[in-house]
Every structure is written in structure tokens, then in C-alpha cells.
Amino acid sequence: MERSRAGGPSKVVRAESREGAGRSGTSGGGFARSRAGGPSKVVRAESREGAGIPLLSSYKPEEYEEVLGAKIRGIEGTFGDLLDRDGCEVTREVSPKAYFRLRCRFGVSCDGDGVDGLSLTHTLYNRGGPRVSVSSYPVASKQINALMPKVADALGRGSPVLRTNLTGIHYLTTLAEKDVVVTLVYDKPLEDAEQWQREAKRLGDSLSVSLIGRSKGVKLVCGKDYVVESMRINDSVLSWKQVEGSFSNPNGEICKRTIEHICGLASQIARDDGGVRRDLLDLYCGNGNYTVPLSPHFSRILSVELNKSLVSAARENMRTNSVANVQLCQSCCMKFSQNVRAKRGGDFQAYSGFDFSTILVDPPRAGLDPNTLHVANAFDHIIYISCNAETLKACLEQLTNTHELRSFKVFDHFPYTEWSECVVHLRRRG
Ligand SMILES: C[S@@+](CC[C@H](N)C(=O)[O-])C[C@H]1O[C@@H](n2cnc3c(N)ncnc32)[C@H](O)[C@@H]1O
After folding, report:
1. Which of 146, 222, 312, 397 has its CA 20 to 30 A from that of 319?
2. Does ipTM top 0.95?
């Protein structure tokens, strides 16, 4: 998609590449509106791309509570019957109102005759309208905001090698505020990789960031292609590698509170089991950022993830955090479930000598396929993390036939949009 700025050479440029609504996944759809009147003030984010990323015009900190309240009412409406049946209340975890996104994707716009360099700006999607040029974006982390003018200036004034055919600038930062990866996205092949590397090194060194150049089928790395996040969870400082281009949670504070919440659920489950730590099946585990903090709460964990880079990061993250009770499996969860179901008729308790009490699922927006849903049903405890209320609802309609809703908490991962994340704990009915 292109637009010309009045007076400028029409050198523009795609913004936001596929961030997907909320978190990763393949199908769309925010939560269904409240049946009881509907939420009054839910902001529809960019529908096609970047739906977890609010428009600048939606960023209204003074309306944060109102927008979140509308989301909660929407969720209460959507899940009303299921919640009422088990007397379960929806609770919430609020996000910081500003600087909450640790990763962000921008388009690029360039003006000028090129003699003294170009005036390069970051752009944001604008709900189908012309993209908006921004010099800062208070939704993105402070580190990203601090870098934006420096990156724009350096790319505009510096060697044309880094800005020719540049269509996007992606940032990946952490709460720990140490590593930063800046990805430059091009719509044409990078012709001279060596020259690109030289210029990228110069820029990376001057800004203290790693740089990645991406064009179709090519990835050039100058520095690291990951960041290391670290957080204090209860009494331990944990850290994990987050790989550029693969899934990581965008809202660091909310991710931390999600971890604390699920660790609390795990403690409660152990109490339910008479203080005995049993085993966890952990599906869609990503880089293991939930697996690591959950590891002391279970005797053994079997974790499954499809993405090879994430499995390899998870493996490293287990080592870094001295986690020794996790078995990682690179597989599609649907195939994994099909396979175990075919071989064992759904008898997961006996799978490879595990003694499972609990399954944790954190699927993409498409939710659980029928086989994985069937597998989940075999567990006494189910922790379901979902960024799509529509698919969550469909799964809970099945699961609540056999399991009661014990808790339902909304984590506001995506302020100023209609998207949110729900963490639901179900326990087999007595
Ligand atoms: C919402 S993310 C959650 C990741 C992780 N729990 C976290 O919080 O970082 C969903 C994860 O599912 C993985 N995934 C997507 N489809 C999958 C499939 N069919 N089988 C296994 N993993 C899949 C993605 O690579 C991604 O890591």
C-alpha cells in the first residue's frame, strides 16, 4: 500500500506488517459484544493488521478505565451463562496506561531530494486511511520512544544503503531495558549484503542496538537476533531469550502479572491435590516463559511447541534457569493430540510415565482444535490462556460440561483496543 505525501517524492512504504490481532494466530475477531446492551466505548483497532496495536487516535489515557470497563462488560456478557452456572466472577488486571508495548512495528515515509539526506519518519496504520507519520508513540516502550528519532535521523541522513527500499522498522525491547533489536524490512532484495553489514554495524554501534535486515527470504543479522528478558517472580530472578520474528508477549508488565497469576493457580492446584506436586502438560509453550516459572510447581512438565526457533530458545531458557524437570517436544499440538489419542485413546495420565494433573494451553487466536480439546478434557485441571474470546467461548461450552469454572481473569494486554487476554482455570466437576 502506498501513499504520496504532498510535495514529496512518492517514496512510501508499507507500515505495520502482520502483527495480528492481539497476539499470534491466524483467525480474526475480537470478543463478541455484550448481550446486555453492549459496551459503550470499545475502540475498534486497525482491523486488517496490527489489531493489538491501538491507533494513535485511540490512545486516550484519560479513557483507559472506561475502555477496559467496556471490555469487561463485553466478556461478562459473552460468558454470562457459563459464569453464572458456577458462580464465577470476572476479575481484571490493569495495564500501565502508557509505554506498555515492548515490541512495535512501524512503516516508513521519506521526504526530500536526497542531496542532504532524506527526512525519514515512522508511520502507523490509520484504519484504512492514509498512514500517520509519528515521531513518538506513547503506546510503545520508553526505549522504543527514545530510539525512534535517533533511528529516523540516522537512516535519513546516513548511507542510502540502509534506507533504500526500506518499508518497515520493527523494534523489540524488554522490561529489563538491556537488549534492543531493530529490524529493517525491505521490499526488494538487499543487493550488497557486505555493504549492508558494514553500515548496519556502524549504526548499531552508535545506537547500542542489534540490527537485522529482512528482505524476502533473506535475514542479515548484525549483533544478536534476540533479546533477553528478565523478571523477579516471587523470590527468583528468571530470564529468558526472546527471538526476533517469533512470538513473545508484547505487554511486559501484563506478562509478569500473568506469570504470577498462573503460579498462584499452580499452588492452589497442588493444595487441591493434598500438597502433592503432580505433572503438567504445557501446550503452545513458545520460548517457555510460562514453563520456567511454573517448573517448581510441578514434578515434571511436558511442553509442546511448533516453532523450531522457539523450541530451541525454550531449551536454552531451561538451561539458563537451571530447570531440569521439563521435556520439550517440537510438534504441532493438533498432531501431538491426534497421535496420543490414537495410541492411547486419550489416556494422558499414563503418557510416557507422566502423572498429569494439569494442562495449560495458550493457543493462537484460532483456539483449540477438536483433538486438543478432547485431550484437555481428560485433565483434572485446565488453565486456558486465550487472546480470542470467540474461540475461548466455543471451547468453554464443551469443557464446562465436565469442568467447573474456578476463576476467570482478564489481563489487559492490549489497552485502547477491544482485544484482551483471558486466563481461565477449570476443575473437573466433583
Ligand atoms: C499465544 S502464543 C503463546 C506462547 C507462549 N505461551 C508465550 O506466552 O510466550 C502461541 C504459541 O503457539 C505456537 N503455535 C502455533 N500453532 C501451533 C501448533 N499448531 N502447535 C504447536 N504450537 C503452535 C506459536 O508458535 C506460539 O509460540
Report:
1. 222
2. yes
